[in-house]
UniProtKB/TrEMBL annotation:
The keyword Metal-binding applies. Its EC number is 2.3.1.234. It is found in: Cytoplasm. This is tRNA N6-adenosine threonylcarbamoyltransferase. Required for the formation of a threonylcarbamoyl group on adenosine at position 37 (t(6)A37) in tRNAs that read codons beginning with adenine. Is involved in the transfer of the threonylcarbamoyl moiety of threonylcarbamoyl-AMP (TC-AMP) to the N6 group of A37, together with TsaE and TsaB. TsaD likely plays a direct catalytic role in this reaction. It comes from Neisseria montereyensis. Belongs to the KAE1 / TsaD family. Fe cation binds at residues 111, 115, 317. The gene is tsaD.
Length: 353
């Protein structure tokens, strides 16, 4: 079965073709990053208009790349939500119109399910059950994944998402939008001891997280630095702040990942979403072992875990993960979609009961 996937939830137009027998045949992406950069953030109206411009050429590009015709497509999957209303409508209208003209089913996909399943696009795939750490610009969540469509929310950020905290902190430091990736590059040049930022909710006995206080701590530090340097942030100081901020976020994510593994007994961790591209997070989770709680004085041996990251190109928004999630839904005989979008849509709504 050949599934065309359409992603248009925010500032990336992604189109891909996934074949249930042959795997991913083509995927193409257009990022609007440069267009939004001069406004310092995503301008929803511009995003919607650009999706409309890109969808047809990207689809044609995928068909050419895979050497298939429109008529070969068996179903069209699209991101139904969550995301920007207008941007979602552009993808939804296109997907529905195309599916209608081809007389093929249309499959609405939850954007986060796309991210969650994206590690299954890698050559080495995780086995169920696993803990998924979803860390994107809009979400920071721990999910227990027992199979396709079988997800339990274990904990999430009570305020800013991790990616959002990266982007807002980058903005505070005067880095161009979207600053998350840039901030993490500069963190490589920073000293580990120059600044210390709080690790919010690190010891809360649950899997909830909070990142907005951390951002405020950075703001206070930046204001002090600017006062001391005639309104400027010296380059090395900026790098040091990047380092301290990233260390704090990664410490929280790693500690919570440890707790999620310990609580569930799962020994496989899958990281998905844009922040999954972060080198420090990859490094720290790659070293993570689970330390079971001992009863007596003897400390049980630490247990190794399997950690999976989607290939870099599937970490951030893309059409491949939507085509793949759509194909999985199609195989599980999910009913045909309706012509609507869901800008706010908790992932737990799609859980099989
Ligand atoms: O999953 P994604 O592409 O889009 C959403 O669904 O939100 O994630 C984008 C987020 C942005 O906040 C971006 O700053 C962050 O992922 N991001 C990073 C890195 N690369 C992208 N954050 C930290 N380190 C990175 N290397
Ligand atoms: Zn995303």
């Amino acid at each position: 079965m050949l599934v065309l996937g359409i992603e248009s939830s925010c500032d990336e137009t992604g189109v891909a073709l996934y074949d249930t027998e042959r795997g991913l045949l083509a995927h193409q992406l257009h990022t609007q990053m440069a267009m939004h950069a001069e406004y310092g953030g995503v301008v929803p109206e511009l995003a919607s208009r650009d999706h409309i411009r890109r969808l047809v050429p990207l689809t044609r590009g995928c068909l050419e790349e895979a050497n298939v015709q429109y008529a070969d497509i068996d179903a069209v999957a699209f991101t139904q939500g969550p995301g920007l209303g207008g941007a979602l409508l552009a993808g939804s209208s296109y997907a529905n119109a195309l599916a209608f003209s081809l007389n093929k089913p249309v499959i609405p996909v939850h954007h986060l399910e796309g991210h969650l399943l994206s590690p299954l696009l890698a050559e080495q795939q995780p086995e169920f059950p696993f803990i998924a750490l979803l860390v994107s610009g809009g979400h920071s969540q721990f999910m227990a994944v027992r199979g396709i469509g079988d997800y339990t929310l274990l904990g999430e950020s009570v305020d800013d998402a991790a990616g959002e905290a990266f982007d807002k902190t980058a903005k505070l430091l005067g880095l161009p939008y979207p600053g998350g990736a840039k901030l993490s590059q500069l963190a490589k040049l920073g000293s580990p001891d120059a600044f210390q930022f709080p690790r919010p909710m690190l010891h809360s006995d649950d899997l909830q997280m909070s990142f907005s206080g951390l951002k405020t701590a950075v703001l206070t530090a930046v204001q002090k630095v600017r006062e001391e340097h005639n309104g400027e942030i010296p380059e090395q100081t900026r790098n040091d702040i990047c380092r301290a901020f990233q260390d704090a976020v990664v410490d929280v994510l790693v500690a919570k990942a440890h707790k999620a593994l310990l609580d569930t007994g799962f020994r496989t961790l899958v990281v998905a979403g844009g922040v999954g591209a972060n080198w420090k997070l990859r490094e720290a989770l790659g070293r993570l072992k689970v330390q079971p709680k001992g009863k007596g004085r003897l400390k049980p041996a630490a247990e190794t875990i399997d950690v999976y990251f989607p290939p870099m190109e599937y970490c951030t928004d893309n059409g491949a993960m939507i085509a793949f999630a759509g194909a999985m839904r199609l195989q599980n005989q999910q009913e045909a979609g309706k012509f609507n979008v869901k800008p706010r849509w908790p992932l737990t709504d799609i859980v099989r009961r």
